[in-house]
Amino acid sequence: KKTVRDIDVRGKKVLVRCDFNVPQDKEGNITDDRRIVAALPTIKYLLENGAKVILMSHLGRPKEGYEEKYSVKPVAKRLSELLGFEVKLAEDKEVVGENAVRLVSEMKEGEVVLLENVRFIKTETKNDMDFAKKLASLADIFVNDAFGTAHRAHSSTAGVAEFLPAVAGFLIEKEIEIMGKALENPERPFVAILGGAKVSDKINVINNLIEKVDRLIIGGGMAYTFLKAQGFEIGKSLLEEDKIDYAKEMLKKAEEKGVKVYLPVDHVVAKEFSNDAEAMTVDVEIPADYMGLDIGPKTVKLFEEAVLDAKTVIWNGPMGVFEMPKFAVGTKAVAEALSKVNGTTIIGGGDSAAAVEQLGYAEKMTHISTGGGASLEFLEGKVLPGIAALNDK
Ligand code: 3PG
Protein backbone atom coordinates (compact mmCIF):
# COMPACT_ATOMS: atom_id res chain seq x y z
CA LYS A 1 0.00 0.00 0.00
CA LYS A 2 1.13 3.52 -0.77
CA THR A 3 1.52 5.95 2.09
CA VAL A 4 1.81 9.72 2.46
CA ARG A 5 5.53 9.29 1.78
CA ASP A 6 4.80 8.24 -1.80
CA ILE A 7 2.78 11.27 -2.86
CA ASP A 8 3.33 15.01 -3.21
CA VAL A 9 1.34 16.83 -0.56
CA ARG A 10 2.85 20.31 -0.81
CA GLY A 11 0.19 22.99 -0.98
CA LYS A 12 -2.54 20.32 -1.08
CA LYS A 13 -5.59 20.00 1.12
CA VAL A 14 -5.27 16.59 2.72
CA LEU A 15 -8.27 15.01 4.44
CA VAL A 16 -7.11 12.54 7.09
CA ARG A 17 -9.41 9.99 8.71
CA CYS A 18 -8.13 9.30 12.23
CA ASP A 19 -9.53 7.17 15.01
CA PHE A 20 -9.95 9.72 17.78
CA ASN A 21 -12.54 7.53 19.48
CA VAL A 22 -11.00 7.99 22.92
CA PRO A 23 -12.47 7.24 26.35
CA GLN A 24 -13.71 10.20 28.42
CA ASP A 25 -14.81 10.65 32.04
CA LYS A 26 -18.16 12.18 33.03
CA GLU A 27 -16.80 15.72 32.70
CA GLY A 28 -15.63 15.00 29.17
CA ASN A 29 -11.93 14.81 30.03
CA ILE A 30 -10.00 12.38 27.86
CA THR A 31 -8.77 9.54 30.08
CA ASP A 32 -6.51 7.85 27.52
CA ASP A 33 -5.08 9.82 24.60
CA ARG A 34 -3.08 6.96 23.07
CA ARG A 35 -5.03 7.08 19.82
CA ILE A 36 -4.47 10.83 19.44
CA VAL A 37 -0.76 10.50 20.12
CA ALA A 38 -0.57 7.62 17.62
CA ALA A 39 -1.93 9.89 14.87
CA LEU A 40 0.75 12.55 15.35
CA PRO A 41 3.47 11.14 13.06
CA THR A 42 1.22 11.39 10.00
CA ILE A 43 -0.13 14.82 10.96
CA LYS A 44 3.36 16.20 11.63
CA TYR A 45 4.73 14.74 8.40
CA LEU A 46 1.97 16.40 6.40
CA LEU A 47 2.53 19.74 8.15
CA GLU A 48 6.28 19.61 7.66
CA ASN A 49 5.74 18.89 3.98
CA GLY A 50 3.55 21.92 3.41
CA ALA A 51 0.07 20.36 3.40
CA LYS A 52 -3.16 21.85 4.70
CA VAL A 53 -4.44 19.20 7.08
CA ILE A 54 -8.14 18.49 7.55
CA LEU A 55 -8.79 15.87 10.22
CA MET A 56 -11.94 13.84 10.84
CA SER A 57 -13.01 11.06 13.21
CA HIS A 58 -15.97 9.49 14.89
CA LEU A 59 -16.39 9.58 18.68
CA GLY A 60 -18.66 7.08 20.38
CA ARG A 61 -21.88 5.87 18.81
CA PRO A 62 -24.35 8.78 18.57
CA LYS A 63 -27.69 7.39 17.42
CA GLU A 64 -29.73 10.50 16.75
CA GLY A 65 -27.46 12.72 14.72
CA TYR A 66 -25.94 15.72 16.50
CA GLU A 67 -25.57 15.49 20.30
CA GLU A 68 -23.27 17.85 22.12
CA LYS A 69 -21.85 15.16 24.38
CA TYR A 70 -20.41 13.41 21.32
CA SER A 71 -18.66 16.54 20.01
CA VAL A 72 -14.97 16.14 19.19
CA LYS A 73 -14.25 19.44 21.00
CA PRO A 74 -12.12 17.68 23.70
CA VAL A 75 -10.10 16.10 20.89
CA ALA A 76 -9.43 19.52 19.32
CA LYS A 77 -8.20 20.74 22.69
CA ARG A 78 -5.90 17.76 23.29
CA LEU A 79 -4.56 17.91 19.73
CA SER A 80 -3.80 21.61 20.15
CA GLU A 81 -1.85 20.85 23.34
CA LEU A 82 0.10 18.06 21.66
CA LEU A 83 0.91 20.05 18.51
CA GLY A 84 1.63 23.29 20.33
CA PHE A 85 -0.71 25.46 18.25
CA GLU A 86 -4.45 25.84 17.81
CA VAL A 87 -6.35 23.16 15.92
CA LYS A 88 -9.54 24.85 14.72
CA LEU A 89 -12.77 22.91 15.16
CA ALA A 90 -15.39 23.33 12.43
CA GLU A 91 -18.46 23.41 14.65
CA ASP A 92 -21.04 22.18 12.17
CA LYS A 93 -23.81 19.86 13.26
CA GLU A 94 -23.92 18.63 9.66
CA VAL A 95 -20.10 18.07 9.69
CA VAL A 96 -19.49 19.52 6.23
CA GLY A 97 -21.31 22.80 6.87
CA GLU A 98 -20.59 26.48 6.38
CA ASN A 99 -17.93 26.61 9.11
CA ALA A 100 -16.01 23.70 7.64
CA VAL A 101 -16.15 25.18 4.14
CA ARG A 102 -15.06 28.62 5.37
CA LEU A 103 -12.24 27.37 7.63
CA VAL A 104 -10.87 25.13 4.92
CA SER A 105 -10.97 27.93 2.32
CA GLU A 106 -9.04 30.21 4.71
CA MET A 107 -6.41 27.58 5.53
CA LYS A 108 -2.74 28.10 4.94
CA GLU A 109 -0.05 25.46 4.59
CA GLY A 110 0.91 24.03 7.97
CA GLU A 111 -2.52 24.59 9.51
CA VAL A 112 -4.96 22.04 10.91
CA VAL A 113 -8.77 22.01 10.92
CA LEU A 114 -10.79 19.30 12.67
CA LEU A 115 -14.28 18.41 11.42
CA GLU A 116 -17.07 17.43 13.82
CA ASN A 117 -17.89 13.80 14.68
CA VAL A 118 -18.62 12.12 11.34
CA ARG A 119 -21.30 9.98 13.03
CA PHE A 120 -23.47 13.10 13.45
CA ILE A 121 -24.51 12.09 9.94
CA LYS A 122 -26.69 9.05 10.52
CA THR A 123 -25.86 7.48 7.15
CA GLU A 124 -22.09 7.63 7.73
CA THR A 125 -22.11 4.07 9.05
CA LYS A 126 -24.04 2.93 5.94
CA ASN A 127 -21.17 4.09 3.72
CA ASP A 128 -23.48 6.70 2.21
CA MET A 129 -21.86 8.00 -0.97
CA ASP A 130 -23.51 11.44 -0.80
CA PHE A 131 -21.83 12.11 2.52
CA ALA A 132 -18.56 10.61 1.26
CA LYS A 133 -18.69 12.98 -1.71
CA LYS A 134 -19.30 15.97 0.55
CA LEU A 135 -16.30 15.06 2.68
CA ALA A 136 -14.18 14.59 -0.44
CA SER A 137 -15.25 18.01 -1.78
CA LEU A 138 -13.19 19.65 0.97
CA ALA A 139 -9.86 18.19 -0.12
CA ASP A 140 -7.43 17.12 -2.87
CA ILE A 141 -6.15 13.93 -1.25
CA PHE A 142 -7.57 11.39 1.23
CA VAL A 143 -5.36 9.70 3.81
CA ASN A 144 -6.70 6.93 6.00
CA ASP A 145 -4.82 6.59 9.28
CA ALA A 146 -7.70 5.26 11.38
CA PHE A 147 -6.49 1.72 12.00
CA GLY A 148 -8.98 1.32 14.87
CA THR A 149 -11.87 1.93 12.46
CA ALA A 150 -10.41 0.17 9.42
CA HIS A 151 -12.77 -2.79 9.93
CA ARG A 152 -15.73 -0.48 9.20
CA ALA A 153 -16.85 0.29 5.65
CA HIS A 154 -18.19 3.78 6.36
CA SER A 155 -18.40 6.99 4.31
CA SER A 156 -15.36 8.48 6.07
CA THR A 157 -13.24 5.32 5.97
CA ALA A 158 -14.10 3.67 2.65
CA GLY A 159 -16.60 5.74 0.62
CA VAL A 160 -14.48 8.87 0.47
CA ALA A 161 -11.70 6.95 -1.30
CA GLU A 162 -13.99 6.65 -4.35
CA PHE A 163 -13.66 10.38 -4.96
CA LEU A 164 -10.02 11.23 -4.20
CA PRO A 165 -6.52 9.82 -4.52
CA ALA A 166 -6.28 7.73 -1.36
CA VAL A 167 -3.26 6.44 0.56
CA ALA A 168 -2.47 5.16 4.05
CA GLY A 169 -0.97 7.08 6.96
CA PHE A 170 1.94 5.95 9.08
CA LEU A 171 -0.18 4.42 11.84
CA ILE A 172 -1.99 2.09 9.46
CA GLU A 173 1.34 1.30 7.82
CA LYS A 174 2.93 0.42 11.17
CA GLU A 175 -0.01 -1.65 12.44
CA ILE A 176 -0.23 -3.82 9.34
CA GLU A 177 3.53 -4.13 9.00
CA ILE A 178 4.09 -5.41 12.53
CA MET A 179 1.01 -7.59 12.82
CA GLY A 180 1.27 -8.71 9.19
CA LYS A 181 4.85 -9.89 9.67
CA ALA A 182 3.85 -11.80 12.81
CA LEU A 183 1.12 -13.59 10.88
CA GLU A 184 3.02 -14.21 7.67
CA ASN A 185 6.63 -14.66 8.66
CA PRO A 186 7.04 -14.84 12.44
CA GLU A 187 10.23 -15.53 14.29
CA ARG A 188 9.67 -18.71 16.27
CA PRO A 189 8.64 -19.88 18.77
CA PHE A 190 5.44 -17.93 18.01
CA VAL A 191 3.00 -17.83 20.93
CA ALA A 192 -0.56 -16.45 21.00
CA ILE A 193 -2.24 -15.63 24.30
CA LEU A 194 -6.00 -15.31 24.05
CA GLY A 195 -8.34 -14.31 26.82
CA GLY A 196 -11.54 -12.40 27.39
CA ALA A 197 -14.99 -13.50 28.38
CA LYS A 198 -16.35 -15.22 25.33
CA VAL A 199 -15.26 -17.97 22.97
CA SER A 200 -17.79 -16.64 20.46
CA ASP A 201 -15.84 -13.37 20.09
CA LYS A 202 -12.65 -15.22 19.29
CA ILE A 203 -13.81 -18.09 17.06
CA ASN A 204 -12.20 -16.85 13.86
CA VAL A 205 -9.08 -15.65 15.64
CA ILE A 206 -8.48 -19.05 17.24
CA ASN A 207 -9.14 -20.74 13.93
CA ASN A 208 -6.68 -18.54 12.05
CA LEU A 209 -3.96 -18.48 14.72
CA ILE A 210 -3.90 -22.27 15.15
CA GLU A 211 -2.61 -22.37 11.56
CA LYS A 212 0.31 -20.14 12.46
CA VAL A 213 1.46 -20.42 16.07
CA ASP A 214 3.62 -22.96 17.91
CA ARG A 215 1.83 -22.49 21.22
CA LEU A 216 -1.64 -21.25 22.09
CA ILE A 217 -2.38 -20.05 25.61
CA ILE A 218 -6.04 -19.70 26.55
CA GLY A 219 -7.14 -17.88 29.71
CA GLY A 220 -10.01 -15.67 30.85
CA GLY A 221 -13.70 -16.51 30.77
CA MET A 222 -13.40 -18.36 27.49
CA ALA A 223 -11.07 -20.95 29.02
CA TYR A 224 -13.93 -22.57 30.96
CA THR A 225 -15.71 -23.70 27.81
CA PHE A 226 -12.45 -25.35 26.73
CA LEU A 227 -12.00 -27.00 30.15
CA LYS A 228 -15.57 -28.25 30.00
CA ALA A 229 -14.83 -29.67 26.54
CA GLN A 230 -11.97 -31.61 28.15
CA GLY A 231 -14.37 -33.04 30.72
CA PHE A 232 -13.48 -30.92 33.76
CA GLU A 233 -15.98 -29.62 36.32
CA ILE A 234 -16.22 -25.84 36.01
CA GLY A 235 -18.89 -25.07 38.65
CA LYS A 236 -20.79 -21.85 37.96
CA SER A 237 -18.06 -20.46 35.68
CA LEU A 238 -18.91 -18.81 32.39
CA LEU A 239 -19.88 -21.46 29.87
CA GLU A 240 -21.00 -21.26 26.27
CA GLU A 241 -22.76 -24.61 25.88
CA ASP A 242 -23.14 -24.19 22.16
CA LYS A 243 -19.39 -23.70 21.75
CA ILE A 244 -18.27 -26.90 23.49
CA ASP A 245 -18.14 -28.79 20.20
CA TYR A 246 -16.21 -25.97 18.60
CA ALA A 247 -13.73 -26.04 21.50
CA LYS A 248 -13.29 -29.80 21.02
CA GLU A 249 -12.75 -29.29 17.32
CA MET A 250 -10.10 -26.63 17.95
CA LEU A 251 -8.27 -28.79 20.48
CA LYS A 252 -8.21 -31.58 17.92
CA LYS A 253 -7.03 -29.27 15.16
CA ALA A 254 -4.25 -27.97 17.43
CA GLU A 255 -3.11 -31.51 18.10
CA GLU A 256 -3.05 -32.34 14.40
CA LYS A 257 -1.03 -29.23 13.64
CA GLY A 258 1.40 -29.85 16.48
CA VAL A 259 0.33 -26.70 18.31
CA LYS A 260 0.69 -26.98 22.06
CA VAL A 261 -2.37 -25.62 23.87
CA TYR A 262 -2.06 -24.28 27.42
CA LEU A 263 -5.20 -24.05 29.55
CA PRO A 264 -5.48 -23.01 33.22
CA VAL A 265 -4.45 -25.67 35.74
CA ASP A 266 -5.73 -23.74 38.76
CA HIS A 267 -8.13 -20.85 39.37
CA VAL A 268 -9.04 -18.06 41.71
CA VAL A 269 -12.71 -18.68 42.43
CA ALA A 270 -15.57 -17.04 44.34
CA LYS A 271 -19.27 -17.65 44.93
CA GLU A 272 -20.29 -14.22 43.58
CA PHE A 273 -19.24 -12.10 40.62
CA SER A 274 -17.99 -9.29 42.85
CA ASN A 275 -14.72 -7.79 44.03
CA ASP A 276 -16.06 -8.12 47.60
CA ALA A 277 -16.68 -11.83 47.26
CA GLU A 278 -14.46 -14.12 49.30
CA ALA A 279 -11.92 -15.62 46.94
CA MET A 280 -9.92 -18.83 47.15
CA THR A 281 -7.59 -20.80 44.92
CA VAL A 282 -8.51 -24.25 43.65
CA ASP A 283 -6.89 -26.74 41.28
CA VAL A 284 -8.27 -27.50 37.86
CA GLU A 285 -11.75 -28.72 38.93
CA ILE A 286 -14.05 -25.99 40.25
CA PRO A 287 -16.54 -26.82 43.06
CA ALA A 288 -20.23 -26.70 42.12
CA ASP A 289 -21.20 -23.37 43.71
CA TYR A 290 -18.05 -21.47 42.73
CA MET A 291 -17.06 -19.63 39.58
CA GLY A 292 -13.59 -19.09 38.18
CA LEU A 293 -12.71 -15.38 38.01
CA ASP A 294 -8.96 -15.42 37.43
CA ILE A 295 -6.13 -17.83 36.68
CA GLY A 296 -4.33 -19.19 39.73
CA PRO A 297 -0.61 -19.04 40.66
CA LYS A 298 0.31 -22.41 39.10
CA THR A 299 -1.26 -21.29 35.84
CA VAL A 300 0.64 -18.01 35.99
CA LYS A 301 3.85 -20.00 36.28
CA LEU A 302 2.85 -22.34 33.44
CA PHE A 303 1.96 -19.44 31.13
CA GLU A 304 5.17 -17.57 32.06
CA GLU A 305 7.23 -20.59 31.09
CA ALA A 306 5.36 -20.91 27.83
CA VAL A 307 6.26 -17.36 26.73
CA LEU A 308 9.73 -17.07 28.22
CA ASP A 309 11.70 -18.22 25.15
CA ALA A 310 9.19 -16.91 22.58
CA LYS A 311 10.47 -14.82 19.70
CA THR A 312 6.99 -13.56 18.73
CA VAL A 313 4.01 -13.13 21.06
CA ILE A 314 0.54 -11.82 20.29
CA TRP A 315 -1.75 -11.15 23.26
CA ASN A 316 -5.43 -10.33 23.10
CA GLY A 317 -7.81 -10.40 26.07
CA PRO A 318 -7.49 -10.48 29.87
CA MET A 319 -6.90 -13.64 31.92
CA GLY A 320 -9.58 -12.83 34.50
CA VAL A 321 -12.06 -10.17 35.57
CA PHE A 322 -9.47 -7.46 35.15
CA GLU A 323 -11.78 -4.60 36.15
CA MET A 324 -12.02 -6.07 39.68
CA PRO A 325 -8.63 -5.62 41.43
CA LYS A 326 -9.00 -8.93 43.26
CA PHE A 327 -9.17 -10.81 39.97
CA ALA A 328 -6.64 -8.77 37.97
CA VAL A 329 -3.58 -10.63 39.26
CA GLY A 330 -3.35 -13.14 36.39
CA THR A 331 -3.67 -10.48 33.71
CA LYS A 332 -1.00 -8.36 35.38
CA ALA A 333 1.31 -11.35 35.69
CA VAL A 334 0.99 -12.06 31.98
CA ALA A 335 1.77 -8.40 31.21
CA GLU A 336 4.86 -8.70 33.36
CA ALA A 337 5.92 -11.96 31.73
CA LEU A 338 5.64 -10.34 28.30
CA SER A 339 7.77 -7.41 29.42
CA LYS A 340 10.62 -9.89 29.89
CA VAL A 341 10.28 -11.58 26.51
CA ASN A 342 13.30 -11.14 24.29
CA GLY A 343 11.39 -10.94 21.01
CA THR A 344 8.51 -9.20 19.27
CA THR A 345 5.58 -8.56 21.62
CA ILE A 346 2.28 -7.37 20.17
CA ILE A 347 -0.65 -6.30 22.32
CA GLY A 348 -4.10 -5.97 20.84
CA GLY A 349 -7.39 -5.26 22.54
CA GLY A 350 -8.55 -2.83 25.21
CA ASP A 351 -7.97 -4.69 28.49
CA SER A 352 -4.63 -6.23 27.64
CA ALA A 353 -3.40 -2.83 26.43
CA ALA A 354 -4.78 -1.20 29.60
CA ALA A 355 -3.00 -3.77 31.81
CA VAL A 356 0.29 -3.13 30.05
CA GLU A 357 -0.13 0.65 30.32
CA GLN A 358 -1.22 0.65 33.96
CA LEU A 359 1.77 -1.43 34.98
CA GLY A 360 4.17 0.82 33.11
CA TYR A 361 5.27 -1.89 30.66
CA ALA A 362 4.17 -0.05 27.51
CA GLU A 363 7.75 0.89 26.61
CA LYS A 364 8.83 -2.74 26.92
CA MET A 365 6.41 -3.97 24.23
CA THR A 366 7.17 -3.90 20.53
CA HIS A 367 3.68 -2.75 19.61
CA ILE A 368 0.42 -1.90 21.34
CA SER A 369 -2.29 -1.86 18.70
CA THR A 370 -4.71 1.08 18.61
CA GLY A 371 -7.36 -1.29 17.29
CA GLY A 372 -9.82 -3.32 19.34
CA GLY A 373 -12.24 -4.83 16.83
CA ALA A 374 -9.92 -3.91 13.98
CA SER A 375 -6.92 -5.78 15.36
CA LEU A 376 -9.11 -8.82 16.08
CA GLU A 377 -10.37 -8.85 12.49
CA PHE A 378 -6.81 -8.42 11.25
CA LEU A 379 -5.72 -11.43 13.34
CA GLU A 380 -8.66 -13.34 11.89
CA GLY A 381 -7.00 -12.85 8.53
CA LYS A 382 -9.79 -10.64 7.20
CA VAL A 383 -9.32 -7.85 4.70
CA LEU A 384 -10.12 -4.56 6.42
CA PRO A 385 -12.42 -2.41 4.21
CA GLY A 386 -10.78 0.87 5.24
CA ILE A 387 -7.49 -0.43 3.91
CA ALA A 388 -8.90 -2.24 0.89
CA ALA A 389 -10.58 1.00 -0.25
CA LEU A 390 -7.26 2.84 -0.63
CA ASN A 391 -6.65 3.27 -4.37
CA ASP A 392 -2.92 4.12 -4.17
CA LYS A 393 -3.30 6.93 -6.72
C1 3PG B 1 -13.13 1.17 18.35
O1 3PG B 1 -13.15 1.82 19.40
O2 3PG B 1 -12.95 -0.06 18.33
C2 3PG B 1 -13.22 1.91 17.06
O3 3PG B 1 -13.08 3.28 17.25
C3 3PG B 1 -14.49 1.55 16.32
O4 3PG B 1 -15.62 1.99 17.00
P1 3PG B 1 -17.03 1.32 16.69
O5 3PG B 1 -16.99 -0.07 17.23
O6 3PG B 1 -18.07 2.20 17.35
O7 3PG B 1 -17.20 1.30 15.18
TrEMBL record:
Molecular functions per Gene Ontology: ADP binding; ATP binding; phosphoglycerate kinase activity
Positions contributing to substrate binding: 19-21, 35, 58-61, 119, 152
Alphabetized UniProt keyword annotations: ATP-binding, Cytoplasm, Glycolysis, Kinase, Nucleotide-binding, Transferase
InterPro entries: Phosphoglycerate_kinase, Phosphoglycerate_kinase_CS, Phosphoglycerate_kinase_N, Phosphoglycerate_kinase_sf
Any one GO cellular component localisation term in the record: cytosol
Name under which the protein is recorded: Phosphoglycerate kinase
Gene Ontology terms: biological process: gluconeogenesis; glycolytic process
Keyword Kinase among UniProt keywords: yes
Subcellular localization(s) per the UniProt record: Cytoplasm
Gene designation: pgk
Matches recorded under Gene3D superfamilies: Phosphoglycerate kinase, N-terminal domain
SUPFAM superfamilies membership: Phosphoglycerate kinase
Pfam family, one: PGK
Domain of life, source organism: Bacteria
CDD domains per UniProt: Phosphoglycerate_kinase (cd00318)
Catalytic activity, EC: 2.7.2.3
Enzyme class: transferase
Catalytic activity: (2R)-3-phosphoglycerate + ATP = (2R)-3-phospho-glyceroyl phosphate + ADP
UniProt KW ATP-binding keyword: yes
PROSITE patterns with a match to the protein in the record: PGLYCERATE_KINASE
Residues where ATP binds: 202, 292, 323, 349-352
Binding site residues for (2R)-3-phosphoglycerate: 35, 119, 152
Pathway where it operates: Carbohydrate degradation; glycolysis; pyruvate from D-glyceraldehyde 3-phosphate: step 2/5
